[in-house]
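EI: anyone free to look at a 256-residue chain?
SC: sure, send it
EI:
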Amino acid sequence: MPALQDKTAIITGATSGIGYAAARLFAREGANLVVTGRNRTKLDALVREIESEGGAAVAVAGDVRDASHARVSVETAVARFGGLDIGFNNAGASGAMGPVVELDEDGWRETIDTNLTGAFLGAKYQSAAMLGGGGGALIFTSSFVGTTVGFPGMAAYAAAKAGHTGLAQVIAAEFGPRGIRANVLLPGGTDTPSNIVNAPGATPETRAFVEGLHALKRLGRPEEIAAAALFLASDASSFMTGATMLVDGGVSITRT
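SC: here you go
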């Protein structure tokens, strides 16, 4: 039986990268999907792709920083599919960059809001629905940045991503007795459109440097991170909660 047969999942940041790969994988594993993001055109294209393969999906366009977007996403899952079993809070952005002494407050707040407040709002409404339905699995896409490595110039991003661990641990403790699990995914460098190696002006030397930081000497593929998210979403991880799971190609342990 497919790992997520008859489950319903919300995936944020589904228009590209890890979220897109997870949407395709979760659908193939039997899940009904609510996919969210800011680009309605890309979301609609994703829904068509999923439906063309026999899956079921609905798009909800919006900004994860908006509480009403989080609420509507959950309401859509319940109205369309009868409940909610999985919340993959994946949306994020590198945000404001630069030394701490040069970061302005607006850039800091925007980065925190996109990466951490957005995850909190998603989890808040997703948890409420799961409490009424016998439990479920929450997953947060964090990063090795701010958890095992401090990259200069990434204070806001690192602080936001580190916050996912505390958020997940509290949710795990609060709602574990009622069947909700909350875990954190810690990807390494992943070959997504937002990665620095794919930025305008990036050189082959940039890619080689970033790849070389990893023990495997390459970037991860979005599909590899999606497979890890599938594990955390499925019953295969039924005794995991409040945990952080590195899927980072060894970047956290490499010094060569």
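EI: Residues 213 and 256 are 7 Å apart (CA to CA).
SC: 👍
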